[in-house]
Amino acid sequence: MADHHSEEEKKDESLMHKISDKIHGHDSSSSSSSSSSSDSDDEKKSSLKAKVNRLFGREKPVHKLIGGGKPADVFLWRDKKVSAGVLGGATAIWILFDVLEYHLLSLVCHGSILGLVIMFLWSNASTFVKKIPPRIPEIRIPEEPVVNIVSALRIHINQAFAVLRDIASGKDIKKFLSVIAGLWVLSFLGSCCDFLTLLYTITVLLFTVPLFYETYEDQVDCYAEKAMAELKKQYAVFDATVLSKIPRGPLKDKKSD
To answer: Tens-of-pLDDT digits for all 257 residues of the chain?
Structure first.
């Protein structure tokens, strides 16, 4: 009987060892599978991130895309005090001229009157108080910066005229439709608000959109890629049904053999 009980105990122990081994093996396999699945998920995320096409095919970072230097630092809030000061000044100007309906000419005249009165009284009072009169700086506009600004404006205006001439010649229908759509949007915005409000809205967008895009550029690029694919499909349908039936402008003469 004792031998029979010992054999049963040995069988039970061996059975328990097998069960425990199976449990541990399952845990190790599940942990390894979970770790491998997490690694595969990370690889998938990295591959998806690499496959995401940047908005408008950009390759440079947002800071360089908007010009770089101090203006880009201001728009991207690198220096919060300067950015807040510029945006606050733009807000004050918009409230002063648009909300309170104060005129620019009146502001310039009133500011000049106030400044001239203060400097005049200060200069005359200094002789009675026996103090040094105020030093009024001599202000002159240098020639070189003005010439550089005018030259840069001339180049950009000539480029705009060249683009408009190229569009009007009927060579690129896609560019023609995009310019017409842009001008129509501007005319619609001009009918909804005045120029100062439109300028202030653009300023606010410059201080918010680049910062938002730099923070969430992966998500924005992913949605933008889907939207561009859908627009390309719609444009292909529109091109096949409408644009292909529009007569094109005269092509350039082929070179004689």
So the answer is: 444 445 555 555 555 555 555 445 544 444 444 444 444 554 544 444 444 556 656 667 777 777 777 888 888 888 889 999 999 999 999 998 888 888 888 888 999 999 999 888 888 887 777 777 777 778 888 888 888 888 888 998 999 888 888 888 877 788 888 888 888 888 888 788 888 888 898 899 989 988 888 888 888 888 888 888 888 888 888 877 877 777 665 554 444 44
Rg (CA), the chain: 36
Count CB atoms within 10 A of the CB of residue 239: 14
State the CB neighbour count (10 A cutoff) for residue 87.
19
pTM of the model: 0.54
Residues in the chain: 257
**CA–CA separation, 4 and 10 (whole Å):** 10
Query: At a CB cut-off of 8 Å and minimum separation 6, what does 32 contact?
Result: none
Which residues, 6 or more positions from 86, have their beta carbon under 8 angstroms from its beta carbon?
74, 207
CA distance linking residue 217 with residue 55, whole number of Å:
9
Distance CA(208)–CA(74), nearest Å, equals: 11
**Integer Cα distance of 63 and 167 in angstroms:** 31
d(CA 233, CA 221): 18
Q: How many CB atoms are located within 10 Å of the residue 207 CB?
A: 18
